[in-house]
Each structure stands twice: as structure tokens, then as C-alpha cells.
């Protein structure tokens, strides 16, 4: 197998270079087309009925009928997923924030996070065939950031016939979304091209100078190419280009009042993924994947009306990955997967020293065993070594028992991890106003030496040489799921989950400066846990009506704080300035987590007159907004919670021969919340789509 | 029925008198004193700290800074004790995570003096007695707020134990949850300490 690799890698490079020279040529990826097949849970195409971890699949028809424009709008309607605004529009999954959730496009990671948040508004959805969501850690397959879960966007497969579509949607706030796509498949090769332009004026949620969502214009291009080299070899090239320009106003307190500022940000995103697949027969498959991705963001902030510079900052990230994966079926019952990869990552930013190169190598292995139709078991591991933090092994064991036709049980235990972020490794920052300094763990030694040489250090709290190599944040998680189909039209699913996360990274002072301020660096010291129950039920009534309800109970706590509360070491300051012990029942856990959340959906499909209507209510219970009113920096006072709310979205589609028209209202009853800037007012939308080739009508169906 | 009531009444009398007896046997509780607006801004003090004597409950002029007349000194957010690098005295201190009222006995060990490795009462946000809110997303920004449950225990220059709660860092001990406090233009001046403290004159570690 190694020998084969030697030939394949140079071949891949060649292909990549050629492909790059002909970027105008579109491409594609071959994907399993059966509705019931999923790829994310085991990295191999498998029937959803035979994977031992629960996988949520959101199909193209569901996405289209929502009238959604970006990924965040789709994910917000799923139970256990919460959209959180924090340096961008991020996802929280079973209480774990965006830092801990891996987002993939056709199996390749999306990069470019700001303070840990991957902004989901960068991801257009018109090219999506389905979204697969695996909750719980999948680091044994995907490595860092797959601690809380994996969201894999599977782009459209190339249809057999020449086909295409144009679509336009207009929404409140002068939001215009235009999409065009076309695809063609021949015997030997196929191509797909997707272009999207989204522009909006953005909006204010409060009477402020800055808009909650800024005005922006974004372009997405997704050309794909697929070549069948022979009956055994296939090459696919999936590429994506994204360009976004946004504008906003800010204000800064200077002198006697506020000075107006104008913020201009440009984000660009590039993904190139050539994949070579060798499938000599049904029992063997070798895939070599190359992935090149880059994310750039640049921000200019200028004084207004003078137009003189106030601040300028940038962040550039490049990520190159080569990965090989080999799957072998020994028999019906046994399938093994092994793989290895190499990652080279480079990052440059305003507050980092230059030329930061990160390298990582990994191997992973997995074995799937199906002793009978009733049982299946998957065991896997992944070993990662990295040049900036300690080596790491992530195991996972999961099993499924199909008790009978109506009942199945899934259980899994696994380890997840998240690499220290760039800031934690590379930051080299001194606050010009307050005078404190912060160093990442990779640069702290040099930073302290420099400050000492400059006579800026008054004393050291600890010897910088003793600062250990930082570890990745890690978790151990347990998931159990019961799927029950009491009647043919009714399904009930119950998930119970628990995550123990340790070695959370935070700052600690390491030295005192002569100016009286501290020098900080990053350490692993904190622990949190999340646990909860998720319930989903769906009932298909006759006449095309489907009713579903879902609910999540979540308990997410800082384990260190929780232990201190139990030991009686945590206080709050009451109204008369007396310090009192925090009672256990008053501790609300981590901020921005709702103990209760859920949704209700009514979907109606009329096959006689070819239309559909859907009404969805999304409930988010009260949550800690991050403020502290009683001097203990934890969530324990009723005034530290933001109220819960329910958003109702209504949408409808009507299909004519080649034309679809659609309309809807998002946030029907104008739910608002001071602490959720993503809650816009009531937003109507209308849209139309035209398919220019028949027989590929992607009409809604269950 | 009447019998039972009588018994209860009798029992009550006994219990109440028992309680009285108990409290009579302990010494009279110490009194917590509050001092407001100790000005710790060096600009107002000729560039010096504001020196304070816990036994007398009064401030000490800067001209006496090289004497044993003071126990602790305030200079913006830093609190010094009269020892080591800060003064000629033998005072020492530590910061404990116990509420002022819950701290019944001063710890036996753990006291430090001001020295090259730092102050006995640790300085810096989140590290000592206060947290600096910075550009907080909610609540007052750029404010110095005492952390609940942090109590400073001092061994004074004359070897007596004392405990101190920092109540406020702002002039007039304002309510910090108001919109007025959040408004930097209307916020009262900083560097004005309000402290609540208690000194045990008999030399024991009892602080109640």
C-alpha cells in the first residue's frame, strides 16, 4: 500500500497543478446518493440504520422549504443546536461553544475562526445536498475541534442530465440573494458550478450606532469537477471561493464625547480539495485527499468624518493537508479503516510574531464489526502529534443494538480534544493603555527574556522555564440513544449525554512588571462538564401533515466553580454589602446556555396542488447573558439571566412546472431579546426559482 | 391538651434561658467599623500612598511613612502592608476566600510581607481583591469591582489580628449596578476606598 502512495502523491500534485491552471473548469464530487446513507459517523458510506452513533440528517428539501440563506438559519431550527453571537455567528452544540465544533465541507475542515467562533454566515446553502450532524466527540476520526460534534456539509452530487437553476430571494433589510447553478455529467467526466451573491443592509436591534448585523455583500463560487480515470480510479476536485465586504459604524469615547468611526472588513476564503479514489472492487477503497485552504481578513477602522486611520488589523491563515485513507472489508462482518495525514499550517496576524508555522502528523484507525444484523460495534482511535503542544490519543468505542424492528439502542464513549488556539500559543501583546502583557505559550520564554533585558520585570511568580508545554483541551464523553418506532408513522428518540472536559486553557499571571502590571500566559487548569437529555418525536399524519417536537434539557457547569460552591468557598455580595455563601441551587452554570430549549414544527405537503407550508416555533429558555451583578463573576443572581423567547417562522412554496415560487415570514411575532443581536425583527421574504432543464425537479418530499 | 401546652411552655422557658446563659459566657462580640472614602490617589497625596492605622482607625500622614505608625497603605488598586519593601514595620497579611462575617478565626499561618516577589496582598485583576471589568459586554465597563468573599487578614504592626473587607473603590460607595455608574462620564471618582474592618485587641485570633 505504501508503494501505491508513492505514486499517488506526485500524481495528485500534478492533477492539482493542472486543475489550478484551469480554474475556470468546473468539477464535482461523487457522493452516495441514497437518502439513508451517511458518511460522517464512520468516514465510510454506511446506512444510517447501521451506524452506532446518532446522526441527524437535514436534507436539501428541508433546507429549501425553510427559505434560509445561510447555514446559521438552518442549524438554529435543530434541537440541541443554538446560534450564539460572539465575534461572529457561531454554533453551540449540546452546551459546547463554537470552538469545540468542527465544520466540514465534504469532509474537509472550514478554517478562519475569530476568537474561536466560525462565522456560519460565511456558508451559503444553495449548493448543499444534505447536512450531517454527529453530536458528541469524533476526535478519533477528525482530530481537534471535533470535541463537541461534527457538522458535515455534503454538497450536491452531479446529476445525470444537463441541468441548472437560477433562484432569487428578497428579504427585509434590502437583503437580496441570487443563485445560479448548472451541472452536467458525461460518461467520463462531470462538472458543477454554483454562484451565489448575497447583499444586505444589515440591521439594528437596539438604538445604537453600530448595527448588530453589518451591511455586507458576499460572493460564493463553488466549481466542482469529477473525472472517471478508469473503472477503478476517480478524481474529484471541489473548490470554493468566498469574498465578503462589510461596513459598519462604531464609536469610541475620546475627549469629551464619542468619536464616530467607520469599520470596513474584507474576508476571503479559498478551498481547493482534489480527491483521488481508487476502488478496485467493493472490498477495497483507497482515497488520497489534498486540501488547500486559506482565510484572510483585514479590517480598517477610520475616524469619521476625517477619514484618518484609527486602527488596522489583519489575520491570515493557510492550511495544507495531505491525507490517505484505506478501507478494507474482510467479510460482511468486518471492515477496517486506516489513515494517515500531514498538516502544515501558517498564521500571521497583527498581534502575532511573523512566520508562525505549525505542523501536525496523525494516524487513525477504525474497525467495524457486525456480528449479526442486530449488533454492530465500531472501535477507533487517532494519534496526533503537533509541534506546538503535546501528543494526543483520542479513542472511541460505540455500539448499536437493533433490539427489534421498532427499537434500537446506541451507546458510545469517546475522547475528544481541541488544540490550543493561535492566540494561546502565539500571542505577543502589551496593552498600550493599561500596560499589562500577554504571551502565548510558544513565545513566553523569549518574551520574558526580552522584558528582563529591558528591565521591565520586577519579579517572577514562577520560572518561565518551568512553564510546561501546553496540552490540548480534552474531554471524555458518554452518549446513549434510544430510537423507538411505536407505530409506522411515529418515531421517538431519546439521547442522554455527558461530557467531562478538562485542561481548559486560561490566562494566569506569571510575572510582575515594574509598572505594577502583570505578565500573563496560558495554562491548562479548568474543568467543565455538560450533561443533558434530548428528546425528539415526529408523527406523520395522513394528508401530508407532519408534526414534530423536540426538547433539550441542558446542565453545563464549571466543575471548579461547582466544587468550590459545594465546599462553601464561593460568595456573593448582597445589597447591603455583606458577603454571603452561594447556595448550590443558585448556581446557573456556564453563561449563554439555556437549561430548556426546543422546537415544534408543522410541515404540510400538498401533492395535489403542488405546494407546501411549514410553521416552526423555536424556543430558547432563559440564559445567563454574561453580566455580573453581585461581585462573584459567576451566574447565580436572577438579574444575571436574559429572558427566554420563541421565534416563529412561516414559509410556503408552490411548484409549477419549471418554476418554484416561495414566500414566508421569519420571526412572525417579533420576538426580541436585548442579549441576542441575531434576533432581527419580523422579516418577510419572497423568492422564485427557475429550473432550465426538466426531469431533475427537486421537489419536496419526506 | 392543657397539660401538653404547659409542658411546651416550660420547655420553651428552659431553652430560652439556656440560650441566654450560653451567649452570656462568650465575650462581647467585636464591632466591625466602616471607613469611607480613603483617598488612594497618589496625585492627591503628593505622590504618596494613603497610610492607615487599623488600631486607631485613622489615616497617617506620609511624613510618617518610615515609622511604625501605620499598618496598611493604599495606592490606587495596590494595598501594601508595613513591612519589607513597603515600610520598616513587621506587619504581614494574606488574602483569604472566606466572607468577612464567616471568618471567625484568623488563620494561624500563611502571612506574608511585602517583598521582591510581590505584595502580601496580591495585586492585579482577578488575582487579588478586585476584578477589572475592561470592555465587558454587559455591566459597567472599565470598573474596579471587589470580588465577593475575599477578605484581607492583617497582623498589625503591634501584632494584633485584623480582618478587612473592601466594600467599594469609588467615592461615596455608589451602587455599581446603576446606569449612572455604567456611564463613565457620571461615575464617581475611583481610588476612594470604603472598607469594613475589625481588630482583635486582645492578641487572640478571634475575629467575631
From TrEMBL, chain A:
Residue span, TonB-dependent receptor plug domain: 48-150
PROSITE patterns hit by this protein: TONB_DEPENDENT_REC_3
Cited CDD domains: ligand_gated_channel (cd01347)
Signal recorded as keyword: yes
Bilayer topology annotation: Multi-pass membrane protein
Signal peptide interval: 1-21
InterPro entries noted in UniProt: Beta-barrel_TonB, Beta-barrel_TonB_sf, Plug_dom, Plug_dom_sf, TonB-dep_rcpt-like
Keyword terms: Cell outer membrane, Membrane, Receptor, Signal, TonB box, Transmembrane, Transmembrane beta strand, Transport
Entry's family note: Belongs to the TonB-dependent receptor family.
Protein name: TonB-dependent receptor
Organism: Niastella soli
From TrEMBL, chain B:
Domain of life: Bacteria
Natural source organism: Niastella soli
Protein name listed in UniProt: HmuY family protein
InterPro entries membership: HmuY
Amino acid at each position: 500500500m505504501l508503494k501505491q502512495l508513492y505514486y499517488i502523491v506526485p500524481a495528485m500534485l500534478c492533477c492539482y497543478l493542472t486543475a489550478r491552471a484551469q480554474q475556470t473548469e468546473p468539477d464535482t464530487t461523487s457522493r452516495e446518493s441514497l437518502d439513508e446513507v451517511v458518511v460522517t459517523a464512520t468516514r465510510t458510506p454506511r446506512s444510517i440504520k447501521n451506524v452506532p452513533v446518532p446522526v441527524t440528517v437535514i436534507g436539501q428539501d428541508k433546507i429549501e422549504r425553510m427559505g434560509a440563506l445561510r447555514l446559521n438559519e438552518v442549524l438554529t431550527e435543530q434541537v440541541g443546536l443554538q446560534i450564539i453571537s460572539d465575534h461572529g455567528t457561531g454554533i453551540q452544540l449540546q452546551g459546547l461553544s463554537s470552538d469545540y465544533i468542527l465544520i466540514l465541507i465534504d469532509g474537509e475542515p472550514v478554517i478562519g475562526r475569530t476568537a474561536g467562533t466560525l462565522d456560519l454566515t460565511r456558508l451559503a446553502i444553495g449548493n448543499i445536498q444534505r447536512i450531517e450532524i454527529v453530536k458528541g466527540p469524533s476526535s478519533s476520526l477528525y482530530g481537534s475541534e471535533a470535541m463537541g460534534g461534527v457538522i458535515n456539509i455534503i454538497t450536491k452530487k452531479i446529476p445525470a442530465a444537463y441541468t441548472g437553476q437560477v433562484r432569487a430571494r428578497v428579504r427585509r433589510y434590502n437583503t437580496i440573494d441570487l443563485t445560479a447553478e448548472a451541472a452536467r455529467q458525461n460518461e467520463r467526466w462531470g462538472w458543477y458550478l454554483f454562484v451565489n451573491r448575497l447583499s444586505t443592509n444589515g440591521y439594528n436591534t437596539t438604538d445604537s450606532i453600530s448595527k448588530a448585523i453589518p451591511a455586507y455583500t458576499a460572493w460564493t463560487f463553488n466549481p466542482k469537477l469529477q473525472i472517471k480515470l478508469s473503472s477503478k480510479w476517480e478524481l474529484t476536485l471541489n473548490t470554493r471561493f468566498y469574498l465578503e465586504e462589510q461596513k459598519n459604524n462604531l464609536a469610541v469615547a475620546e475627549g469629551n464625547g464619542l468619536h464616530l468611526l467607520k469599520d470596513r472588513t474584507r474576508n476571503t476564503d479559498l478551498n481547493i480539495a482534489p480527491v483521488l479514489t481508487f476502488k478496485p472492487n467493493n472490498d477495497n477503497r483507497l482515497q488520497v485527499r489534498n486540501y488547500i485552504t486559506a482565510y484572510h481578513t483585514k479590517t480598517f477602522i477610520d475616524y469619521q468624518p476625517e477619514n484618518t486611520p484609527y486602527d488596522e488589523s489583519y489575520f491570515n491563515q493557510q492550511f495544507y493537508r495531505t491525507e490517505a485513507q484505506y478501507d478494507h472489508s474482510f467479510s460482511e462482518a468486518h471492515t477496517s479503516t486506516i489513515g494517515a495525514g500531514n498538516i502544515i499550517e501558517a498564521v500571521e496576524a497583527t498581534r502575532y510574531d511573523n512566520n508562525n508555522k505549525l505542523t501536525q502528523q496523525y494516524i487513525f484507525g477504525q474497525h467495524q464489526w457486525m456480528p449479526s444484523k442486530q449488533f454492530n460495534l465500531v472501535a477507533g482511535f487517532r494519534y496526533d502529534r503537533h509541534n506546538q503542544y503535546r501528543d494526543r490519543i483520542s479513542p472511541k468505542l460505540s455500539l448499536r443494538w437493533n433490539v427489534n424492528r421498532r427499537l434500537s439502542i446506541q451507546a458510545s464513549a469517546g475522547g475528544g480534544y481541541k488544540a490550543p488556539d493561535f492566540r494561546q500559543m502565539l500571542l505577543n501583546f502589551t496593552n498600550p493603555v493599561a500596560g499589562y502583557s500577554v504571551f502565548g505559550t510558544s513565545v513566553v520564554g523569549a518574551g520574558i527574556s526580552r522584558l528582563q533585558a529591558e528591565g521591565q520585570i520586577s519579579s517572577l511568580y514562577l520560572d518561565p522555564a518551568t512553564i510546561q508545554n501546553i496540552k490540548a483541551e480534552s474531554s471524555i464523553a458518554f452518549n446513549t440513544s434510544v430510537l423507538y418506532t411505536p407505530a409506522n408513522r411515529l418515531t421517538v428518540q431519546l439521547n442522554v449525554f455527558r461530557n467531562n472536559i478538562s485542561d481548559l486553557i486560561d490566562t494566569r499571571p506569571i510575572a510582575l512588571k515594574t509598572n505594577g502590571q502583570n505578565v500573563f500566559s496560558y495554562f491548562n487548569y479548568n474543568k467543565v462538564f455538560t450533561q443533558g437529555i434530548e428528546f425528539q418525536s415526529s408523527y406523520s399524519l395522513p394528508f401530508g401533515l407532519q408534526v414534530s417536537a423536540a426538547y433539550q434539557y441542558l446542565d453545563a457547569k464549571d466543575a471548579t466553580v461547582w466544587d468550590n460552591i459545594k465546599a462553601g468557598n464561593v460568595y456573593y455580595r448582597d445589597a447591603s454589602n455583606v458577603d454571603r455563601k452561594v447556595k448550590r441551587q443558585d448556581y446557573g452554570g456556564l453563561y449563554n446556555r439555556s437549561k430548556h430549549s426546543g422546537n415544534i414544527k408543522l410541515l404540510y405537503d400538498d401533492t395535489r396542488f403542488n405546494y407546501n407550508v411549514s410553521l416552526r416555533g423555536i424556543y430558547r429558555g432563559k440564559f445567563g447573558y454574561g453580566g455580573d451583578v453581585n461581585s462573584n463573576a459567576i451566574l447565580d443572581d436572577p438579574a444575571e439571566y436574559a429572558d427566554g423567547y420563541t421565534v416563529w417562522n412561516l414559509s410556503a412554496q408552490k411548484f409549477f412546472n419549471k418554476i418554484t415560487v416561495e414566500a414566508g415570514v421569519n420571526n412572525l411575532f417579533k420576538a426580541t431579546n436585548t442579549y441576542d443581536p441575531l434576533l432581527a425583527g419580523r422579516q418577510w421574504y419572497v423568492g422564485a426559482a427557475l429550473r432550465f432543464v426538466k426531469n431533475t425537479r427537486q421537489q419536496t418530499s419526506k | 391538651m392543657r397539660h401538653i401546652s404547659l409542658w411546651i411552655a416550660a420547655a420553651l422557658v428552659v431553652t430560652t434561658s439556656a440560650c441566654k446563659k450560653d451567649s452570656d459566657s462568650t465575650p462581647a462580640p467585636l464591632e466591625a467599623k466602616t471607613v469611607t472614602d480613603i483617598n488612594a490617589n497618589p496625585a492627591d497625596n503628593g505622590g504618596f500612598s494613603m497610610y492607615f492605622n487599623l488600631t486607631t482607625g485613622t489615616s497617617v500622614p506620609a511624613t510618617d511613612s518610615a515609622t511604625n505608625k501605620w499598618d496598611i497603605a493604599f495606592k490606587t488598586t495596590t494595598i501594601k502592608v508595613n513591612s519589607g519593601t513597603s515600610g520598616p514595620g513587621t506587619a504581614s497579611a494574606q488574602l483569604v476566600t472566606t466572607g468577612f462575617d464567616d471568618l471567625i478565626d484568623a488563620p494561624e499561618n500563611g502571612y506574608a510581607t511585602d517583598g521582591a516577589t510581590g505584595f502580601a496582598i496580591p495585586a492585579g485583576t482577578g488575582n487579588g481583591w478586585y476584578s477589572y471589568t475592561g470592555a465587558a459586554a454587559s455591566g459597567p465597563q472599565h470598573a474596579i469591582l471587589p470580588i465577593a468573599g475575599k477578605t484581607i487578614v492583617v497582623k498589625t504592626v503591634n501584632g494584633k489580628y485584623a480582618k478587612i473587607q473592601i466594600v467599594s473603590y469609588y467615592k461615596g460607595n455608589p451602587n455599581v449596578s446603576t446606569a449612572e455608574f455604567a456611564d463613565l462620564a457620571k461615575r464617581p471618582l475611583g481610588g476612594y476606598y470604603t472598607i469594613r474592618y475589625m481588630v482583635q485587641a486582645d492578641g487572640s485570633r478571634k475575629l467575631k
